[in-house]
Amino acid sequence: MKKLILTFGIGILGATAVFSQQNDINITPNNSWFKAGLTAGVPVGDASDVSSFNAGVDLRGQYLINPNFAIGVASGYNHFFGKDEFDDFGVVPVAGFARYYFQPEGLFIGSDLGYGFLTNVDNNEGGLYVNPQIGYHNRDWNFYGYYQNTFAENDVDLQTVGVGVTYNIRFK
What we know:
Blueprint: H1 2-22, E1 32-44, E2 51-64, E3 69-82, E4 89-101, E5 106-119, E6 126-137, E7 141-152, E8 156-170
Antiparallel strand pairs: 1-2, 1-8, 2-3, 3-4, 4-5, 5-6, 6-7, 7-8
């Protein structure tokens, strides 16, 4: 799994390098911004056996390649509240993402892909992290629903379904 993540990361870096050499990239407040927000979800599958709720922080840096397509990096923290005798635990994602905006304001779809590092979990460091999203956006805000899955080691899948909101902080 770690080789797969490494290969994916090298591929993304290579594609970015090729893209930036072929195009004159000019970072402006109109095409690049930082996104910061909150998420809340309900664990499903295996995760619902040990947690009843999760909340998190969503942090992103985005570059708009054209008016409809954006790429970027994503991270944050997702805290799973343990139920009964189980302890709380968390996922720290380190991912790349892509989004497609159908119009300057309205519907978008996208997904994160990367590695989710687990916190407060014995004998498991994490695994492949996938986070598809669908939502509404305008110049300042993004409201979305998501399904998140971390395919962790030892056949542990941490899945959650939830909603999130981020605010766009423009680079100057």
